[in-house]
Design a protein that fits this description.
There is one protein chain. By secondary structure, this protein is of the alpha+beta class. It has one domain: NADH Oxidase (3-Layer(aba) Sandwich). It has eight helices and six strands. Strands 1-2-6-5 form a four-stranded antiparallel β-sheet. Strands 3-4 form a two-stranded antiparallel ribbon. Helix 2 (48-58) packs across helix 6 (148-165). It binds 3-iodo-tyrosine.
């Protein structure tokens, strides 16, 4: 198969001077560095269209063979949120009181997490990111997706940045195991829950842990 057998279009990105590139990269880094995972949400409502734009941005992520193997469940229904909270807390209680190692619990101490997940009730929106392990054809036949975890991970990163860009905050919550989500949301068998992300405004009095990020020399190995 050659490119010519499939439609191609011209790619003409905006051209920047090196000076502008440097300025942009610095500014973008400074802005990205302000993003924090927040656990204290305000119940203040956020318009649906903002959430849709955020999700459309996530869906611009690259994916294996451009299969876009993701579904974003966008939840605002209070009864459903309460149900998800109850089920998440059931699992988290078991995790915090035995399933997680002592080392893990200790590593989480600076973050101040526990089994209680009131943010699921309080945040106006919950996005459940589902990964699509495969696609189902019309006759129930399975069609492959590729690099599903990588693709959905990248899309989730885009999602978090789009949330930050909209002036909102989020928490990447990972209740484990997550199969209760598939049941509660009545998702089809080809989808698996990946992340549960409350989204909204931070509470007036929101606090975040005083964390530092790794430095250049800790994260980059140079091969000049
Ligand atoms: N899933 C649990 C525990 C937890 C695990 C990690 I790794 C974190 O960075 C934070 C929490 C919870 O959500 O509380």
């Amino acid at each position: 198969m050659t490119k010519k057998e499939h439609p191609y279009i011209e790619f003409s990105p905006e051209k920047l001077s090196e000076e502008q590139m440097l300025a942009n990269s610095k500014e973008f880094y400074a802005w990205a560095d302000k993003r924090r995972s927040v656990r204290d949400f305000s119940p203040k409502e956020v318009p649906l269209e903002i959430m849709e734009n955020i999700i459309l941005t996530a869906s611009t992520a690259p994916s294996g063979a451009h299969k876009q193997p993701w579904t974003f469940c966008l939840i605002s229904n209070a009864t459903l949120k309460a149900k998800l909270r109850e089920l998440a807390e059931e699992e988290e209680k078991k995790s915090y009181s035995g399933r997680m190692s002592d080392e893990w619990i200790e590593d989480l101490e600076p973050l101040g997490t526990n089994w209680e997940k009131e943010f699921i009730d309080i945040a106006p929106w919950i996005i459940v990111v589902m990964k699509r392990a495969y696609e189902l054809g019309e006759e129930g036949n399975k069609m492959n997706n590729y690099y599903v975890s990588e693709s959905v991970g990248i899309a989730s990163g885009f999602l978090l940045m789009a949330i930050h860009n909209a002036g909102l905050v989020a928490l990447t919550h990972t209740p484990s195991p997550m199969n209760f989500i598939s049941k509660a949301l009545e998702r089809p068998e080809n989808e698996r829950p990946y992340l549960l992300i409350p989204v909204g405004y931070p509470a007036e009095n929101a606090m975040v842990p005083d964390l530092t990020r790794k430095s250049k020399s800790e994260i980059i190995e140079y091969y000049p």
